[in-house]
Design goal:
The complex is a heterotrimer of chains A (about 600), B (about 180) and C (about 575). By secondary structure, chain A is an alpha/beta fold. In chain A, about 40% of the residues lie in helices and about 10% in strands. In chain A, strands 12-11-15-13-14 form a five-stranded mixed beta sheet. Chain C has 14 helices and 24 strands. Classes of the chains: A alpha/beta (about 600), B alpha+beta (about 180), C alpha+beta (about 575).
Chain lengths: ~600, ~180, ~575
């Protein structure tokens, strides 16, 4: 290994390799690449070959990953990598102006290095901070609520000092009277920092000894009884998912926490990860006990480096108190939790894509059957749950399924975090009982209604993948069944409010660009169809759309819908179909005069 | 059935009236309009869909349009075409086209001028020209090789520029002329 | 054998073995389900989405038995989405629609998507005529694309290794090649870089495919993304005649197809035979066919006569007469005759060779030249003779094979052997030096290409390569496989069995061998393992024989010699 790797880095790498089964060293590759890129600034041939040798892989296996995950780069970037979010919510808030200002100021185009080697500007997809947009990250620091001037000031300061200051976490927002905070209950308590002491003081980790005194099957039954549904986007009943696990295979069972929050418009998991890490860890340990897993991985998206650090620290605090590790609380149960960082792919939020990425490969979702409950991580039975779902588990165990069922409405029990972004007066996160609020109440009461002089045009109810609701359809209760009956879905809870200044065609283009960028490229319809829709919408926006393009757009989306390996196909097709159907007149107007002559 | 022979008069038996009649017929035609075409000074008019000998063309930049896909060889009913495919040299400006014919021989003694080769060609590289006096002293002269075919074909205007531009041709690319039925 | 599973495909009843997927099950009833990424010998990827079909299962009542509808037949519930046929295993009572409106629209959609970024390379692409994109777009596509945007551009004409050319724009990312290199060839060197529509197949620079099985990825690539440099721009496949044959390069005897046009063989590809080579072939065998059309091939039998040792062409009757005359004079002097055969000959030729040299001429020092190389653990056998078992069975070998060759050399040196008949071997490289050959009174060589031995021979009889004759090989696992003639021999060269039959006739031992079937029929009467077989009825997959231990005949005055291990 001709590469001069720092000794402590190599030690760190060796330690990380122990987090994974010895015959699956490949799983450590994403961590390894992150660390190497931190030291060397880029991942060139030598880094690729060093990694391949270290983990017993072929160089092509490593190179595949560097080009797949946008956080990695083969060519050196500037010392400070400015990443401006360009997805829908941030675009609605004006990220374009920030990009233009920074590009002009530094005199470079996108993805180019400044001549002093200090800066590179790129656009990135949703950074899960939509309520405080526009946002950008500079290396590991997140800057929110930007204006072009604010962005310029930040860059000036970095240039002047040559350093990047660590940004403090924003202060949690006080709850609105209509909210019901269970998961976020502690956030606004005085001097609450989310540390172990604070958490235990507020009654944390009570469910752990209680759960360890129950039988695992009873816990599963309790969770099933509580009717808690997955909060990641699909809304699948959690207890039922656990009961699908194949037992008696002789293989270890794994629990994976999906903290790869990338759905545009969603930023609820960010709050749970950064402010209440122990709630999640408690939920994971109890869930591991319930399903019989002894190892759990938290797959956190690469763009939340501080979240990863906070979780790692919390894990150590829990281990110190014997809430984690060997012989937890003396009850003979071993459980280890490892943090695994992603590297910038939305497709890693899909459960089998996540599993593939965890195993150290390109995040290509798997064909089902077999399902992860039978053949999952490393070929073993695996259950994948969202951060919010797992954070509910301690409360269910503490207070019982009956208590949980009293919150919410039939079919959608418990509370739910939603995130609101767009042209409302008070964007941000809110927790309330499912079904007890309508969309109108959320927008007009909790969010204070639209900004001055704006009128409502539409609402995307569950992250950009879900079909949009028109302004006259917002009297729908915010629970799974009601939204499904309204022709859309509750999804990830990322609510984007579109006002009358929004150009629907441009929003559709923004969303189409997101999916074209995030498509993994494995299966034909999504790979070709998403880029086709983006190019078509681009051409329409440039004024070269033909009248037949409106139906063509819908038909292309329909050809993707239902034909793909994973739900990203549906996620790409539904917004286009919904926008074209419900706002057809805007599309027709945009396509009136063009003749399709200019190609893009 | 008995055929009656006409009875000739003495004057008719000398055959002089018949001779004079014939001379008169010929003289009658002298002032009349003649339909004789004075070939080779006057060439016959070739109607619009006339099919002559097949030839290979180059595009306005001098690139041989044929890429030796061998579809014409396959479709030719009398199997008059023989092609040996070859590779375009690496450094040349049209190296992205990759393929070109190494040898291209049309046996004109077999060619039936059906025009299938022109119809099937996906590269618009072979065209039947408007000629008709295809002759030679030896059989070998009528095996038209690639050099001869290109010479006969000349340059063809192009508006699509299939290989040159990635995507649509720029607005300033030359446009194709309209192909009209020509008369001679 | 477990009970087959009963299901209905397009209204036809099918009985499929348990565990079979729908693509194979549909084949059983003659229904084609188009697919790209599925390959029966590789793991399932399921990424092309071309094999989408409508699958319905019987609705189960509360008693877990199928509910019956008003017509007495089980109620079938179809899923909301289509399923891919390659990953769906047959189940009892399953109903599959492959031509419903939903499926047709899905196929047209997938076909349109595949062509969206595909370059307009058909006129220059080698795959034209055997391209599944072309075939399925005609059969299942819409016929017109609605895509008017700019296509994605990727690297074209890239060499990955000296044998294979990669064109990334044509690649449909089915990942068959990636899976093959990893699972079958054992070199994990291909992968996809970039993401989404920009995904590109590549290999790490410096780690190109370099196994003996690389060209198989050219076979399995459904489009023209991976093409063989050996075949690049040679011919269009629709001009080529396909002839089933057997590879003559090692004892595995992979089943092949020879592609020829007007007497020239242009390429070899493997064909399916689960008992021998599944559907693969090694590159060593695949690329070794150029010698068939070598311009130096013998075109006629020749005799070396004249004062300066010039060679003259003869006709076959004349050649047979002259050689026959010389051999008849050696009647009773079998001890002065030796013969060296080749394990690369067909069984029929070896049979007649044996009859000629042993039975008729009475020679005892008869042997074959063994060819040994390095075997890999897959298809390439260390024994590089395609018909060693045939040679042993015919009785023209010593035990161990090749051990009698030094004896022959010694005997020539001592003057005991004055006549040597060689078939198909350059013995100068295998233990009988040229000066020894010069001592012979009569050297008859039957071969196809010139070498040092043919230059010294008195008579050279022009033979045929494996591509020009009918016959059989018996491979290392005792499988009798049939060769077919793809092209005629150059000039008046002819298959050796005809030469041997003519010589036998000349020497009075006429076996009435008018056609190869007669030779085979005679073999079945004489050689026990072949009893009851018929050449025309062997079929394309061959027949397994029970050879037992075949003991080659010993010569009377044999000195134990060291085994000759000739490197191939």
């Amino acid at each position: 290994m001709a590469l001069n790797v720092a000794a402590d880095l190599e030690k760190h790498v060796d330690e990380i390799v122990t987090h994974y089964p010895p015959q699956h060293k490949r799983a450590a590759v994403l961590w390894l690449l992150h660390l190497l890129q931190e030291q060397f600034g880029h991942l060139g041939k030598e880094q690729v070959e060093w990694t391949a040798t270290k983990l017993g892989l072929q160089p092509i296996n490593v190179w595949e990953l560097i080009t797949f995950y946008p956080m990695f780069t083969a060519k050196p970037r500037g010392k400070f990598h400015i990443k401006v979010c360009r997805t829908l919510s941030c675009e609605l808030c004006g990220c374009g102006g920030i990009l233009e200002r920074l590009k002009k100021k530094l005199g470079v185009g996108l993805d180019e290095k400044t001549s002093d080697g200090l800066f590179t500007i790129s656009t990135v997809e949703c950074l899960a901070a939509c309520g405080t947009g526009p946002v950008m990250m500079v290396n590991d620091e997140l800057f929110e609520n930007l204006t072009p001037d604010a962005a310029e000031t930040i860059i000036d300061r970095v240039k002047a000092t040559g350093k990047l200051e660590q940004q403090p976490l924003p202060k949690p927002v006080a709850p609105h009277p209509l909210e019901k905070r269970v998961l976020l209950a502690n956030l606004t308590k005085p001097n609450y920092t989310g540390s172990m002491d604070d958490y235990v003081r507020e009654g944390g980790y009570r469910s752990l000894p209680k759960a360890l005194g129950m039988k695992p099957d009873d816990i599963v039954a309790e969770v099933k009884n509580s009717e808690v549904r997955g909060r990641g986007g699909a809304g699948f009943p959690c207890g039922m998912k656990w009961s699908f696990l194949a037992k008696g295979t002789g293989k270890p069972i794994y629990l994976v926490c999906n903290a790869d929050e990338s759905e545009p418009g969603t930023f609820k998991d960010r709050q749970l990860l950064h402010y209440e890490p122990h709630q999640l860890i408690e939920g994971i340990v109890v869930s591991c006990y319930a399903v019989g897993a002894h190892v759990a991985y938290i797959y956190i998206r690469g763009e939340m480096p501080y979240g990863a650090k906070i979780l790692a620290r919390a894990i150590e605090e829990a281990r110190a108190k014997n809430f984690l590790g060997k012989n937890i609380l003396g009850k003979g149960f071993d459980c280890e939790i490892y943090v695994h960082r992603g590297a910038g792919a939305y497709i890693c939020g899909e459960e089998t894509g996540l599993i593939e990425s965890l195993e150290g490969k390109r995040a290509y979702p798997r064909i089902k059957p077999p399902f992860p409950a039978v053949v999952g991580l490393f070929g073993c039975p695996t259950v994948v749950n969202n951060v919010e779902t797992l954070s509910n588990i301690p409360h269910i165990i503490n207070n019982g399924a009956a208590w949980f069922k009293e919150l919410g409405v039939p079919g959608s029990r418990g509370t739910r975090l939603v995130c609101v972004s767009g042209a409302v007066k008070r964007p941000g996160y809110y927790e309330f009982e499912m079904g007890k609020l309508t969309m109108r109440q959320l927008i007009e009461d909790l969010c204070g209604g639209l900004k001055e002089g704006r009128k409502l045009k539409g609402v995307i109810p569950g992250g950009s993948s879900m079909p949009v609701l028109k302004a006259d359809q917002i009297d729908v209760a915010l629970d799974f069944e009601s939204l499904r009956k309204a022709g859309t879905m509750a999804g990830s809870g990322g609510i984007i409010v579109l006002d009358d200044t929004v150009d629907i065609v441009q929003s559709t283009l923004n969303v189409a660009q997101f999916y074209a960028h995030e498509s993994c490229g494995q299966c034909t319809p999504c790979r070709e169809g998403t880029l086709w829709m983006e190019k078509m919408l681009h051409r329409i926006r440039q004024g070269h759309g033909r009248p037949e393009d409106v139906d063509l757009l819908w038909d292309v989306a329909d050809n993707i819908d239902g034909k793909t390996i994973c739900p990203l196909g549906e996620a790409a097709a539904w917004p286009v179909k919904a926008f074209v159907t419900k706002y057809r007149s805007e599309f027709e107007a945009a396509c009136k005069n063009g003749n399709g002559s200019k190609k893009h | 059935m008995q055929v009656e022979r006409p009875k000739l008069t003495i004057w008719e038996r000398t055959y002089l009236p018949q001779i004079l009649h014939g001379l008169w017929l010929t003289l009658k035609h002298i002032p009349r309009r003649k339909f004789t075409r004075q070939y080779p000074e006057e060439k016959p008019p070739l109607y619009g869909a006339y099919r002559g000998a097949p030839t290979l063309v180059k595009d306005p930049e001098g690139r041989i349009k044929c890429v030796s896909c061998q579809l014409c060889e396959f479709v030719c009913p009398p199997k008059a075409i023989r092609i040996t495919p070859g590779t375009r040299p690496d450094g040349s400006p049209d190296a992205n086209v990759e393929k070109e014919p190494k040898e291209f021989v049309i046996d004109m003694l077999r060619c039936i001028y059906c025009g299938y080769c022109e119809e099937v060609c996906p590269e618009e590289a072979i065209f039947l020209k408007r000629d008709f006096a295809i002759a030679g002293y030896k059989r070998e002269e009528l095996q038209f090789n690639m050099e001869k075919l290109l010479e006969l074909g000349g340059v063809q205007e192009d508006s699509i520029w299939k290989w040159k531009y990635k995507g649509a041709p720029p607005p300033d690319a030359p446009a194709a002329p309209k192909r009209e039925a020509k008369v001679s | 054998m477990t009970d087959p599973v009963k299901l209905t495909i397009d209204g036809k009843e099918a009985a499929a073995p348990k565990g079979m997927n729908l693509i194979e099950a549909a084949k059983l009833v003659g229904v084609e389900v188009p697919h790209y990424c599925y390959h029966p010998k590789l793991t399932i990827a399921g990424n092309c989405r071309m094999c989408l079909v409508d699958v319905g299962m019987p609705k189960l009542g509360a008693d877990k038995k199928p509910e019956l509808g008003p017509d007495g037949k089980p109620v079938i519930l179809f899923g909301p989405k289509l399923s891919i046929g390659c990953n769906t295993t047959v189940a009892e009572g399953m109903v599959v629609h492959t031509r419903s409106a939903k499926v047709i629209k899905a196929r047209e959609g997938v076909m349109e998507f595949l062509l969206v970024n595909h370059p307009l390379d058909c006129p220059i692409c080698d795959q034209a005529g055997e391209c599944r994109l072309q075939e399925f777009s005609v059969d299942y596509g819409k016929g017109q694309s609605r895509f008017i945007e700019e296509k994605v551009h990727k690297p074209k004409k890239t060499e990955i290794g000296p044998k294979i050319m990669l064109d990334d724009e044509r690649c449909i990312l089915c990942s068959r090649c990636v899976r093959f290199m990893k699972e079958v060839a054992g070199q994990d060197c291909l992968g996809f870089v970039e993401r989404g529509s920009y995904s590109t197949l590549t290999c790490y620079p410096g780690m190109e495919p370099n196994t003996n099985y690389d060209l198989n990825i050219v076979d399995i690539c459904p489009v023209g993304a991976l093409t063989s440099n050996d075949f690049r721009f040679k011919q269009r496949v629709w001009f080529l005649k396909e002839t089933k044959s057997i590879c003559p390069n090692c004892a595995t005897g992979c089943n092949t197809v020879l592609w020829s046009r007007e007497g020239v063989v242009h390429r070899q590809t493997p064909r399916d035979n689960d008992a021998v080579n599944q559907c693969w072939m090694c590159d060593h065998g695949r690329l070794h066919y150029q010698f068939i059309n070598d311009p130096n091939r013998f075109v006629a039998p020749t005799v070396k006569s004249g004062a300066m040792g010039e060679r003259f062409n003869l006709t076959w009757p004349e050649a047979t007469r002259q050689i026959g005359e010389r051999l008849k004079a050696l009647k009773g002097k079998g001890a002065t005759i030796a013969a060296i055969g080749t394990t690369r000959a067909t069984t029929e030729e070896l049979f007649l060779f044996n009859k000629l040299v042993r039975e008729v001429l009475g020679a005892e020092l008869v042997d074959c030249v063994p060819h040994v190389g390095e075997g890999d653990k897959f298809l390439l056998n260390a024994d590089r003779s395609p018909n060693m078992n045939g040679a042993k069975l015919a009785g023209v070998t010593a035990d161990p094979v090749g051990s009698r060759i030094p004896v022959i050399a010694e005997a020539i040196k001592s003057g005991r052997i004055k006549t040597l008949i060689i078939h198909g071997e350059n013995v100068a490289k295998h233990g009988i030096a040229e000066d020894l050959l010069g001592k012979l009174e009569l050297l008859v060589v039957i071969d196809t290409l010139p070498n040092k031995v043919t230059e010294l021979a008195h008579f050279v009889l022009a033979g045929a390569t494996f591509a020009e004759k009918r016959g059989t090989f018996i491979n290392g696992k005792a499988r009798l496989q049939r060769l077919n003639a793809a092209i005629p021999s150059p000039g008046i060269a002819r298959p050796e069995w005809q030469t041997f039959a003519a010589l036998l006739n000349e020497l009075g031992a006429d076996g009435k061998y008018l056609a190869i079937e007669d030779v085979f029929a005679d073999m079945t009467r004489t050689l026990a393992p072949l009893a009851g077989l018929n050449l025309s009825k062997i079929g394309d997959q061959g027949v397994e024989l029970k050879l037992g231990t075949v003991t080659p005949p010993a010569a009377s005055a044999e000195k134990p010699a060291a085994t000759v291990e000739a490197k191939a």
